[in-house]
Amino acid sequence: MKLAIIGRGAVAQALARALVGHDVTLGVRNPTRVKEATMAEAAARADAVILATPWAAEAEVAAAIAPYVAGKTLIDATNPVGMTEHGLDLVPQDGRAAAEALQARLPEARVVKTFNQIGAEFIADPAALERRPVMFAAGDDDAARQLALNLVKEAGFEAIDAGPLTNARHLESLAVLWICSTLEPDLGRSFGFSLSHLKE
Fold first, then answer.
1. What's the whole-model pTM score?
2. Residues 6+ apart with CB under 8 A from 128
3. Which position among 27, 79, 191, 197 has the lowest Cβ density within 10 Å, counted as fewest Cβ atoms?
4. Do residues 114 and 138 touch, judged by C-beta distance below 8 A?
5. What is the pLDDT of residue 165?
6. What is the DSSP string of 14-33?
7. At residue 175, does pLDDT exceed 70?
8. Interacting residues of 200 by C-beta distance below 8 A, sequence separation 6+
9. Which residue, among 193, 75, 52, 50, has the nearest Cα to 135 in the 3D structure?
10. pLDDT digits (tens, 9 = 90+) for 68-99
């Protein structure tokens, strides 16, 4: 599959390594390396697009890729995190998840929220954790959500269907829980969430 990963940071690089079995192009503002293209070029040639930029860049990215994502799966791996009166927290989106706001910006894309619930180091290497970490995916389009879940499995996670895109707000909250927990000295960036199943 031809994948466009929009971004050049730690999450984008981790996703490129995790999904090395696909034809991956990084979409960036100013391409300077092999396997990089402009955001528009990368999205145009891709079968599916993964948004892995800082959340604050979403409006710029959406404008750049808008003509090229109609009918395509668009995976949102960002988190709308910032400093609030309560400290580090989700930035309010008028009652919507950031992924729902992205869907509103790009109504012809098939947005799925996933790859946002753990740090980049474990996206690149989930096997570094003692137990296989879980990764949820939420989206309104069944086929797009299944495509995202397949990529999550390929990356080494336990893939769980989280239902419609309205549930993306819970996945973004889970990400904030992980981020805030990494600030605790007993945890740091040394853990992920996993499922514990009933014994047979």
1. 0.94
2. 121, 122
3. 197
4. yes
5. 98
6. HHHHHTTTSEEEEEESS--S
7. yes
8. none
9. 193
10. 999 999 999 999 887 777 777 777 667 789 99
- Cα dihedral 156, 113, 172, 131 in deg (nearest 10): -10
As a whole number, mean pLDDT of residues 15-22 equals 97
Residue 51 near residue 12, CB atoms below 8 Å? no
Note the pLDDT of residue 173: 93
37 Cβ partners below 8 Å, 6+ apart?
4, 25, 26, 27, 28, 31, 45
Measured between alpha carbons, how far is 164 from 177 in angstroms, rounded to an integer? 21
Q: Taking the C-alpha atoms of 23, 29, 31 and 37 in order, what is their torsion angle to the nearest 10 degrees?
A: 30
Give the integer Cα–Cα distance in Å for 112 and 115. Answer: 10
Residue showing tokens 């668009």: 74
pLDDT score of 99: 95
Q: Distance between terminal CA atoms of the chain?
A: 37
- Token pair for 53: 């930029």
